[in-house]
Amino acid sequence: MSSSPIETIAAWQEEFTAIRRDIHAHPELGLEEHRTAALVAAKLREWGVEVHEGVGRTGVVGVIRGGRAAEGRNDGPRIGLRADMDALPMQEANGFAHASTHPGRMHACGHDGHTTMLLAAAKYLARTRNFDGTVHLIFQPGEEGAGGALAMLEDGLFARFPCDAVFGIHNRPGLPVGEFGLRPGPMMAGVAFFDIQVTGKGGHGARPEATNDPVVMGAAIVQALQSVVARNVPAIERAVLSVTRFDAGQAYNVIPNEVRLGGTVRAFSNEIMALVENRMRAISEGVAAGLGGSAVLDFRVITTPLVNDAMEAAALGDAAAALVGEGHVHRDFPAVMGGEDFAFMLERCPGAYIVTGNGDSAEVHHPRFDFDDRAIPYGAGVLAAVVERKMPRAG
Ligand SMILES: [Zn+2]
Ligand SMILES: [Zn+2]
After folding, report:
1. Which residues contact 21 (CB under 8 A, 6 or more apart)?
2. Which residues keep their CB under 5 angstroms from ion ligand 2?
3. Which residue among 50, 75, 300, 369 has its CA within the 20 to 30 Å range from the CA of 90?
4. Which three-class secondary structure state does DSSP give residue 234?
5. What is the pLDDT along the chain (395 residues), one digit of tens a residue?
């Protein structure tokens, strides 16, 4: 009886392109998305969607009920659909009319597009209600390192808006518009940042025998850390350990008392992340002690690995294939070492994450990146389609 959600949503292309470009022109940083959240809430209300604001600071949740759930008999099955809303602290280099109006802030990751896709899916689902159950529209703040997913979860997201499954989407430059990619199991890495404070005895650069030289300790630690991935992580697992900061001293003839190292670790399971942390602590402390000083590791997990539930990934892939054909859905899409904090929601609720093609654009986080508005009906369409397929309307 119903046509494809893509066809219906594509007829609204002009409306949603205008919304997307308006958000792009007014980027807001993580947990400060006041204008964006207000715009989202206003649009949802315009379409008759129940709105809850201030979930996890600037997060917004919309509720749409269909079938028996709409008749108030029970919630029925419940699906969460999640998009992120925040921009990045960087200067946009694009000169088009909808470029950022805020110096030093830019939607360079396409979250303006994700928010718009979820809005378009919301309008479609609210108009058609061709499903039997409850949809929770999760507009998340602060994905870019601001802890927005955890802020919503700690604010009772899944207690207040229970979900049997949750789905998220991200654009992907280099993948043609109208194509999708996902994979069962780990799809994006867990991310940790670390600092290592190395302390010893400094002194005159001409009299190293009167010191124990923390610079040599720091260099030895950097070298020894290279053994963690090579010698401790099993060869069939994947991990990255990069020391990216080495701050020491100010003068040519002074050996400093302290050296500060920093960097990042990526891994596809919490077990490997813990293994790397434990080895880093033992090596840093042991090497520094052996050279007469001390080292303290501060290891901070920023996001957990993003792991797609196999059954939900299959369901999301099926929804995409029903829209664009199996040939345009890459179900063995390569995992990447980048992180994504939707992983915290997937840790608490089964679900899946899919990427949608953004065509031949600059990479995300590039000053010339732009979201391709032609992708809106595809992203919105797959979110709407997974709802209709997983919660089919009886009769
Ligand atoms: Zn990003
Ligand atoms: Zn992003």
Report:
1. 97, 98, 373
2. 109
3. 300
4. coil
5. 456 899 999 999 999 999 999 999 999 999 999 999 999 999 999 999 999 999 999 999 999 999 988 888 787 899 999 999 999 999 999 999 999 999 999 999 999 999 999 999 999 999 999 999 999 999 999 999 999 999 999 999 999 999 999 999 999 999 999 999 999 999 999 999 999 999 999 999 999 999 999 999 999 999 999 999 999 999 999 999 999 999 999 999 999 999 999 999 999 999 999 999 999 999 999 999 999 999 999 999 999 999 999 999 999 999 999 999 999 999 999 999 999 999 999 999 999 999 999 999 999 999 999 999 999 999 999 999 999 999 999 86
Ligand 1: distance of its center to the CA of 388 in Å? Answer: 29
Helix (H) or strand (E) holding 262: strand 258-267
Q: Which pTM does this prediction carry?
A: 0.94
CA 112–ligand 1 middle distance (angstroms):
11
Give the amino acid at 333: F
CATH of domain 5-187+305-390: 3.40.630.10
Q: What is the CATH number of domain 190-303?
A: 3.30.70.360
Smallest-distance ligand from the CA of 114? 2
Q: What stretch(es) of the chain map to CATH 3.40.630.10?
A: 5-187+305-390
The Å distance, Cα 346 to ligand 1 centre, comes to 18
Which ligand approaches the C-alpha of residue 110 most closely?
2
Maximum CA extent, the chain: 88
d(CA 310, ligand 1 centre) in Å? 25
What residue ranges of the chain are covered by domains with CATH 3.30.70.360? 190-303
Distance CA 395, CA 382 (A): 23
